[in-house]
Specification:
Layout: E1 8-10, E2 13-15, E3 19-21, H1 36-47, E4 52-59, E5 71-72, H2 79-91, E6 95-101, E7 129-130, E8 144-145, H3 148-167, E9 172-177, H4 182-187, H5 202-205, H6 207-219, E10 225-231, H7 242-254, E11 259-263, H8 281-291, E12 294-298, H9 304-312, E13 318-321, H10 323-327, H11 331-340
Parallel strand pairs: 3-4, 3-13, 4-5, 4-6, 6-9, 7-8, 9-10, 10-11, 11-12, 12-13
Antiparallel strand pairs: 1-2
The structure holds flavin mononucleotide.
The site of flavin mononucleotide has 20 residues, from strand 4 and helix 10.
C-alpha cells in the first residue's frame, strides 16, 4: 500500500488516506448560509475519495468575511445547512473539517469574479478591523485598530463558532492563522505595530493566536481535532518567518493543537513568491523535523508520485490539495490506481 493511501490516526479520528482537501472559498453564500452549491461541491470531493475535507474559510462574525459571499457560522441558524453537508461527507467515509476565519483588514471585498476590490461604500461594505491602522493595499482606507475589548470579542466569537461547528458535525476545526488574515496580521510585525501586550515582541504578537486556540480547545470535545493553518513566512524581509513559525508550533503543540497546515504568504501584496511545484513543502519539513508536530503540506502538489515522495521522505504527514481537487474531484481515485493499482471508486462507478 502506498503512503498516500495509508490511514493515519490523529487524536480520536482516523483519516482513511493522507489526502486533505484544502479550504477554498467559494464566495457563493448569502448571509453566510451554505446552499446547494456548497453541498454538491464538498460531497463530490468525498465521492472522489478525499480522506478529509477542510471547508473553506467560514467567518466567525459577519465583519470577519472576506466578501459578502463567504460562508459564516456566527448564528445558530447556520448549523442546519452545514449538518447536511457533514452528514453526507461522512456517508462516504470522509472526515469533515471546517476552517474558522476572520479576515481583518482583508475584509469587505467584492467577489473575485467582480474584480475583488475592497468595497468602501454600499450595501456589501463594512468597516474593517486590524491590529494596527495599516491598510493592506496603499489605495485602501486604513482599518480600525482593535481595542482590547474588541480583541476579546473576536476570541469569544471563535469560541462560539467552534461550539456551533461541533454541533454541525465537523470533526476537525482548523483555525485560519495564515494568508494575511486577522490572526496572521497580529503575528507579523509588518501589520502589527501595537504598543500594548498584543504587539512588539514575539510573545505579544502570538498572544491572539494563543488566546483563540485556548478558547477553542476549552470547548471542543476530545473527539474533535484542532488544527491551525499558518503562513510559515511572509516572504518579506522583516516579516513573520520560519524560525518564528517553528517557535509558535512548539507552543501550539503543548496547547493540544494536533496538526499544522503549512502555507505561506498573503500578508503583503508585493511579496515575491517563487511558486514552483511543492514550493512550500520545505517549510512543512522544517517544522515537522524541529517540533515533531504532524504537518500538512500545501501548494502546487499535483502529481501522485510527487505526493508519495514527500510522504516517503518524511517531509510531511498530510498532502493538502487545493486547485488539483477543483480541477479534478476524482483525483484520489486516479492516484490510487497509479500508486496501488486499486480501484477505490464508489461501486456505482465501478464499470468505468
Ligand atoms: C479559489 C480558492 C479559494 C481559496 N480559499 C482559501 C480559504 O478559504 N482558506 C485558505 O486557507 N486558503 C484558501 N485558498 C488557498 C488554498 O487553500 C491553497 O493553500 C492554495 O491554493 C495552494 O494550494 P494549491 O496549489 O494546491 O492550490 C484558496 C485558494 C483558491 C484557489
Amino acid at each position: 500500500m502506498s503512503k498516500l493511501f495509508t490511514p493515519i490516526t490523529i487524536g480520536d479520528i482516523t483519516l482513511k488516506n493522507r489526502i486533505v482537501m484544502s479550504p477554498m472559498c467559494q464566495y457563493s453564500a448569502e448571509e453566510g448560509f451554505a446552499n446547494d452549491w456548497h453541498f454538491v461541491h464538498y460531497v463530490s470531493r468525498a465521492v472522489g475519495g478525499a480522506g478529509t475535507i477542510i471547508q473553506e474559510a467560514t467567518a466567525v462574525i459577519p465583519e470577519g468575511r472576506i466578501t459578502y459571499g463567504d460562508l459564516g457560522i456566527w448564528d445558530e441558524r447556520h448549523i442546519d445547512k452545514f449538518r447536511k453537508i457533514t452528514d453526507a461527507i461522512k456517508g462516504y467515509g470522509t472526515i469533515p473539517g471546517i476552517q474558522l476565519a476572520h479576515a481583518g483588514r482583508k475584509g469587505s471585498c467584492d467577489l473575485p469574479w467582480n474584480g475583488g476590490e475592497e468595497l468602501i461604500t454600499g450595501d456589501h461594505a463594512w468597516p474593517v478591523d486590524a491590529p494596527s491602522a495599516i491598510a493592506f493595499e496603499k489605495n485602501e482606507p486604513d482599518p480600525v485598530a482593535l481595542s482590547k475589548t474588541e480583541i476579546d470579542a473576536v476570541t469569544n466569537a471563535f469560541q462560539q463558532a467552534a461550539l456551533r461547528a461541533v454541533k454541525a458535525g465537523y470533526q476537525i476545526i482548523e483555525i485560519h492563522a495564515a494568508h494575511g488574515y486577522l490572526i496572521h496580521q497580529f503575528l507579523s510585525p509588518l501589520s502589527n505595530q501595537r504598543t500594548d501586550e498584543y504587539g512588539g515582541s514575539f510573545e505579544n504578537r502570538i498572544r491572539l493566536a494563543l488566546e483563540v486556540v485556548d478558547a477553542v480547545a476549552q470547548v471542543i470535545p476530545k473527539s474533535v481535532n484542532l488544527w491551525v493553518r499558518i503562513s510559515a513566512t511572509d516572504w518579506v524581509e522583516g516579516g513573520w518567518n520560519l524560525q518564528e513559525s517553528v517557535a509558535l508550533t512548539k507552543i501550539l503543540k503543548e496547547k493540544g493543537v494536533q496538526v499544522i497546515d503549512v502555507s505561506s504568504g498573503g500578508l503583503m501584496p508585493d511579496a515575491i513568491i517563487p511558486a514552483d511545484p511543492g514550493y512550500q513543502s520545505g517549510f512543512a519539513e522544517t517544522i515537522k523535523r524541529e517540533t515533531g508536530m504532524i504537518t500538512g503540506s500545501v501548494g502546487l502538489l499535483t502529481e501522485a508520485v510527487q505526493m508519495e515522495t514527500l510522504l516517503t521522505m518524511q517531509v510531511c504527514d498530510l498532502i493538502v490539495l487545493g486547485r488539483k481537487l477543483l480541477a479534478d474531484p476524482y483525483f484520489p481515485i486516479h492516484a490510487s490506481r497509479i500508486l496501488d493499482r486499486k480501484n477505490i471508486a464508489p461501486k456505482q462507478y465501478g464499470r468505468a
